[in-house]
Design brief:
By secondary structure, the protein is an alpha/beta fold. The protein has a domain of 243 residues: Alpha-Beta Complex (Spore Coat Polysaccharide Biosynthesis Protein SpsA, Chain A), CATH 3.90.550.10.
């Protein structure tokens, strides 16, 4: 048993070393980011597309921020899912109050049953753009962009080697609920993985229109479940790169229930399985992070039963090391993100010691829910997204099972993250 214990502990240490190296490498990328102001004369014409289904808690803030972008040449297009959608009133009120010539809203007319509703909206918007537009920018309704958001997002596209640019999400929940805590902790390490695997995030994403016109991206969106993860393969075919913009680490302050957290994680993993060629790396990481703690539990049980105090002490020390290393890696990431947030004038003092303790205590919960979500992403053929169910028979074999306008339940929207 001693040799088995040594082998397991060695693999655990190697796993923690690898996780620390990737995380600190990402921190270095965040730290070395310097914002270079894109002059007005260099700003290409851009269409910003916001797809809306359901009344997100920060939708009004998102719309107002979209209207006040410090960018000289952009149009904002809001695609609302249905005439009965509860968000339509918010959008109409915003449009009438704005009285801006560069903003417009419309209903989703070409609702396809071969892709997600979001992809249908994007295809509808993209096909209306004439040759004067040089880029299309995507924004999620739970993202509140600061005034220089679009200027920062478009700047990397001036490089002819770059085909798309993206930011990422970061959670600063107002209340440390169980679901919000689990989501925060999972996302901390998910964005590290997304950076190294070059996975784009549709919440802040810009794509050159040349890429859209010269590739089969519109056809792909017409048959896909998500719009962003596939970009790695699309850009690679054109020998172009995806630029990550660290300053566009966007803050989400929404709360999250445990059920919504689980469904959200499962959907993130599902999109990686469907559209990213390095999906096996995600699975390998998920299996390691699941199997190693299980081995520790098994070793601890065997050591206690056989009264092997040495191995018992080793296992306890390894378990503590696992929790401490993962917990401590939160701080350099959190500090790096806070630097960007503070520069934008947004509040950063949100994490209390109580929340940090709850993050640490969430690790065992994640060890249960994450492998369940991973297994579901591997095996599931049906998934629900914002109240609509999809049949998933393959990356390009998506079927909207039954369309329903967005529904409200009591005073709460049934938004599925």
């Amino acid at each position: 048993m001693s040799q088995l214990a040594i082998a397991v502990l060695s693999v655990l240490c190697a796993f923690l070393f690898g996780q620390a190296a990737l995380t600190l490498g990402f921190v270095w990328v965040l730290r070395r980011c310097r914002y270079s102001h894109l002059p007005d004369r260099a700003c290409p014409k851009v269409a910003v597309v916001l797809c809306v289904r359901g009344k997100d808690p920060f939708l009004t803030d998102c719309l107002e921020a979209l209207l006040h972008q410090d960018y000289p040449n952009y149009d904002a297009r809001v695609i609302v899912d249905h005439a009965d959608d509860p968000a339509l009133g918010v959008v109409q009120e915003w449009f009438e109050a704005s009285n801006a010539p560069n903003v417009r809203w419309e209903l989703l007319q070409d609702r396809r049953d071969t892709c997600s509703l979001k992809c249908s909206s994007l295809v509808q918007a993209a096909r209306q753009l004439d040759s004067s537009y040089e880029a299309i920018a995507l924004l999620d309704a739970d993202t509140v962009p600061h005034s220089s958001w679009l200027r920062e997002l478009i700047a990397p596209l001036l490089d002819e080697r770059c085909g798309a640019s993206t930011g990422n999400r970061w959670y600063m929940p107002a209340a440390p609920s169980v679901g919000a805590t689990a989501r925060y902790f999972w996302n901390v390490f998910a964005i590290v993985q997304m950076y190294w695997l070059r996975i784009a995030w549709g919440g802040s994403l810009a794509v050159k229109m040349d890429v859209v016109r010269k590739s089969d991206l519109l056809r792909s969106w017409s048959e896909a479940f998500c719009e962003d993860t596939m970009l790695y393969s699309v850009l690679r075919k054109q020998a172009l790169r995806l630029a990550f913009v660290p300053s566009l680490t966007m803050i989400n302050r929404e709360d999250c229930g445990l059920g919504n957290y689980y469904r959200w994680v499962r959907r993130q993993l599902l999109t990686a399985r469907l559209y990213h060629p390095l999906w096996n790396a995600v699975v390998f990481h998920g299996l390691l992070s699941t199997i190693l703690p299980l081995f520790l539990i098994a070793l601890f049980t065997a050591a206690v039963v056989t009264e092997n105090r040495q191995i018992t002490a080793w296992v306890i020390a390894a378990a503590l090391l696992y929790v401490v290393v993962l917990s401590l890696l939160l701080w350099p990431l959190e500090a790096s993100v806070r630097r960007f947030v503070a520069q934008r004038g947004e509040p950063t003092a949100w994490m209390s010691w109580q929340f940090f303790v709850s993050c640490v205590s969430a690790i065992p919960l994640l060890q249960i829910l994450y492998p369940m979500a991973l297994a579901s992403a591997l095996l599931s053929r049906r998934v629900e997204w914002r109240g609509v169910e999809y049949q998933i028979d393959g990356p390009w074999r998506i079927r909207l099972v039954e369309y329903r306008p967005y529904q409200m339940t009591g005073d709460k929207a049934t938004i599925s993250l």
